[in-house]
Amino acid sequence: MHPGAKISQGRSKGQQRIQSQNDYLRQWLPRQESYLHHLLDREAPPEDRRCIVCEQDGVYKCQDCLGEPLYCTGCCRSQHHHNPFHWISQWNGQFFEQSCLAQAGLVIHLGHDGKQCPALADRWDLFEGDEHEDQLEPEDLPFVSGPEFQPKENTMVIIDKSGVHRLEIRCCDCPNALSPDIQMFRHGFFPASFNRPKTAFTFRVLDDFLLDNLECGTSAMNYYSKLRRMTSSMFPHLVPDRYRELMRVARQWRQLKTMKWHGFGHRSDIPSTGELALFCPACPQPGINVLVAGDESLDDDDKNSPSWKYTRSFVMDGNFKAEHLHPIKPFDEVWLSDGLGFMVGKDRYKMHLAEAADMVEKSSCNNHRAVNQANAARHKLESTGIGGVACARHGCFVPHSMVDFQKGERQMNMDYALCEAARHNMEGISRAVTFYDINCQYNKHFRARVDASRFLEMTQDLTIIPGIGLWHVHGHQDSCYVRYASNFIDGIGRIDGEIMETLWAPRGMSSPHRQECLDYQMNDSNFCKMIRMKRTLCRKYKLAMNGITESGKAFDRLDEAAPAHLKTEWSARERRAQSSRLNDPEAMDEYEINIKKAPSRKEIELRLLEEGSARNAAPSRRSVATWISTGLAIEEAQIALLIEVRRMGKRSTETQRLDIARQRDRLQGQIDGFTQSALTHLGEGFDADDDPDDLNVDILDDLDDDPADFSKTSDAWTNSPELTVIPLPSNLGVDRCRHCMAEDLIPLEMSLREGQANDTLHNLRIHLCNKAVLFRTSVRQAKSQALKTRAWSQVTSVQQAVSLHASIYTKTRKQMMKLEPGQDQLQKFKPLLREQLKISTAVGDPNARGQRNESLAWFWSVEVDLGGPDQSWNEEFYRVHWLRAKALQDRWKEEMTLVQLEMDWTCNYFSWRATQWGDRMRESLEKRLPGHACYSGRQSQMYSLLAQDAQAAFEDLQSVSIETGDE
Q1: What is the full DSSP assignment across 790-856?
Q2: How high is the pLDDT of residue 124?
Q3: SS3 assignment, position 305
Q4: Which pTM value belongs to this model?
Q5: Phi and psi (nearest 5°) for 241?
Q6: Are 816 and 825 in contact (CB under 8 A)?
Q7: Rounded percentage of the chain residues whose pLDDT exceeds 90
Q8: Could you give the C-alpha distances from 614 to 112, 153, 620, 622, 742, in angstroms and in order?
Q9: How far apart are CA 147 and CA 102, in angstroms?
């Protein structure tokens, strides 16, 4: 045996290391010099300099033929008869200089199998005078003379993906010959004009430009600049400029390709609204991928079919990068596909905008981007952006549902988009879920706006369920989460509602051209999603299998510990909430902790401000409650920063130190503003330069913190804003407040301190309950090291929140003691001990025998009203965990059901398309249109292969899953 065989055999048995890119570079470095010499050797001709065809004296070297062969003049012409766009170079005795096939005498003959037409007159006037000549300034002309700058007479400018060529083209001049532009078109040239063309684009370069534009976002200007540099590296500006012609011809080519793809070369009618656009193969489309008998309905009750089976999911969004300037000559624009693709038709849309009321709605939720940009007008722009609708589960744009914005993202724009989306292949579908960043506001009066408009149409039978994407919903008020997040919407499966992509759109083009580009981009996006739908659904299926398993385990752990009578009650409350959500979104608050909290700091501040306004307080006292509340917030920020600095310790990174420095800078600015305001509220007796007591707060260490990690040197914290004592009445002291005539501020701060204490105790209870549930459902149930690590990471995060709120409460109570509290306040707000923050059995198991509120720490029963004496605080928290875990499990089960349905719908869609193109092929054969028949057959085969491939992959995946489940 060869000795190397043993080595190979030994390596195959073990784990073979995959080489990195750097490994390959290291292997290449010793070969670098050899590669360089061989590269230079290619510059010289062979020693005998013979033509590879006839062995005569070789003159031309082709740079595009394999091996860069050498040809004589005659062989160069004959060998490039069918490759007229190769670049050649000519030997001048010293080196090869750039040349072209026109210099070698190549002529392209159209017709007669590439031979000269016997009836052809030796004239060129067929191709003269229809296009402008290139104008060059004298200083642009080179002071050299070579073949590159001496184009032959009677040549056309032909743009190919290899560069810009000048070649002589001769058309057939027989009596029955087609017109010159059609002859050129049938030979793969798209003429820039039609009577006497002087410029033509090859189909190759047009296809290449469109693909470059789609995949790389290459503009026409950049693409043509590349072609000019490929033609002449030294003098690209001397290459004929056909940028404007490329823009125009690309529009025509794009339109022809789109109509061809959608079968309008096989039909006598013209396209109607949205017919030049693809849609999602996996969304339910009655009559296409959902087959329903004539006497059946999609709403028919079926024991084996859920009511949400045929739900259409939409996501709505805007894109403010797709701006567009006002056109210079709007009256002179030519629209090739207005309203035929994804962008809506301009005329009807403009009439809708003219009649719709421009309602400026003040958001009752948080300060949303789209609401605030509703009036963002930019006078130089015809469109400030675009908005539209896509399917939420797969991200395919809905045909005829994209609109332009004129003054930002207004309701009138999105109303039109949604109504148009709801009309596309929705016959018989009665349920739709919409995801929109501001659906909590947008959906309130949507039906009223539709009913009031002549141009908005939506069937009354369609039920719209509003939702908000999982990323955006966290920017809303807390109540919006359970009311609009996809986690709590029946029948939607597991989606995030954030799938809509940002579109590319250039500004420097006409309005029709821009619309065509957007339509083409979105069509291509849908096509790519269509051909990848098999992989997408297989991935979703695997995720659903895993999600069902994991969510089932999490829910089972909670379900086993809950009493049966409580689970029955909780399930009934869940059903009532889901059935009432459309008319009353607040019904979904069932998934929140329903407790009557003690008054918060914000509530007390609002009450104090209203009382001050009612009694016409002095100007210096009108906003004093807000000023004190701001001081309390600054103190909380100081404590949070102090804990972060302490936790960071000495072994900090540069990024961490920079983050701390930025936080300190912001905090110092807040303190400076607060201290300046103190002069107004504390009177002339206050001196801002006085130094009150030092800030002394007990920071509770985290369970896993190592004290050695903390920096204990006071020098590092000298003059830090987190240690600055701010001039609150509690820091000044009661006596000094009386001296400053600010004694009335003491009860105000005491009231706000009570609210602050209530807030921190409420947060403590939530985080401790969360920690208890984590221990019970994650830490103790973790079977692997990875799961344990993940579980303890969650516990650590919760523990840090516990430490923060405990520290804030300790500081709050200490300040209250300085304000001479009453006996009731002393009894209510007791000292917080470290042992009281540990998880006890009463917290960890709310249903254990004998464990009620009396076994918990004092703060578990401070002003908490659950509506009955038999309920504990933790029982309410456990109910919410149980409901949310059940919702997650339900969504994963729905996801599995939907993915299986979408697999069937996808295969049905491909089969429907294959049948449609097969019918067109037979019709074309009957009409004796062989080209139409061939294209139809090719399209039919493509969809048949997609259907077969998807069907095989889905069956294989499901069979493997069944076998795995049986094991």
Answers
A1: HHHHHHHHHHHHHHHHHHHHHHHHHHHHTT---HHHHHHSPPPPGGGGSPPHHHH-TTSTT-SGGGS
A2: 45
A3: strand
A4: 0.74
A5: -85, 110
A6: yes
A7: 38
A8: 99, 95, 15, 10, 20
A9: 10
**Rounded distance, CA 268 to CA 920, Å?**
12
Neighbours of 142 (CB within 10 A): 13
Q: No. of H helices and E strands in the chain?
A: 29, 16
Mapping DSSP onto H, E and C, the string for 632-669 reads HHHHHHHHHHHHHHHHHCCCCCHHHHHHHHHHHHHHHH
User: In this structure, are strands 312-319 and 385-391 parallel, antiparallel, or unpaired?
Assistant: antiparallel
Burial class from Cβ neighbours inside 10 Å (0-12, 13-18, 19+) for residue 260 reads middle
Is 207:223 a contact under the CB 8 Å cutoff? no
pLDDT band at 147 (very low <50, low <70, confident <90, very high): very low
Distance CA 69, CA 353 (A): 65
Tokens standing for 661? 């420095």
Q: Is-contact 155 106, C-beta < 8 A?
A: no
312-319 β-sheet, strand order = 403-405, 385-391, 312-319, 431-435, 463-467
Neighbour-count burial of 322, counting CB atoms closer than 10 A to its CB (0-12 exposed, 13-18 middle, 19+ buried): buried
Name the strand (E) or helix (H) holding 370.
helix 369-372
Pairing of strands 312-319, 163-170: unpaired
State both tokens at 703.
């369970």
Q: How far is CA 473 from CA 176, 354, 362, 479, 615, in A?
A: 69, 32, 18, 10, 40
In order, the DSSP letters of 576-587 are HHHHHTTT-GGG
Q: Find out whether 947 and 914 touch, Cβ atoms under 8 Å.
A: yes
User: Which two structure tokens, joined as six digits, stand for 162?
Assistant: 């290899």
Contact of 805 with 769, CB cutoff 8 Å: no
Q: Residue 192: what residue type?
A: A
CA distance 158 to 161: 10
Phi, psi (degrees; rounded to nearest 5) at 165: -115, 155
Task: Give the N- to C-terminal CA distance of the chain in Å, as an integer.
Answer: 44
CA distance 399 to 288: 15
> What are the structure tokens assigned to 694, written together?
């030092």
Residue 96's DSSP bridge partners are 91
790 neighbors 752 (Cβ within 8 angstroms)? no
Eight-state DSSP code of residue 467: E
Structure tokens at 14: 């073990």
Spell out the residues 6+ positions from residue 859 whose beta carbon is closer than 8 angstroms to its own: 761, 764, 765, 830, 832, 836
- 517-571 pLDDT, tens per residue? 888 889 999 999 999 999 999 999 999 999 999 999 888 878 887 888 888 999 9
Query: In whole angstroms, how far apart are CA 277 and each of 514, 522, 527, 772?
Result: 16, 8, 10, 53
pLDDT of 388 strictly over 70 = yes
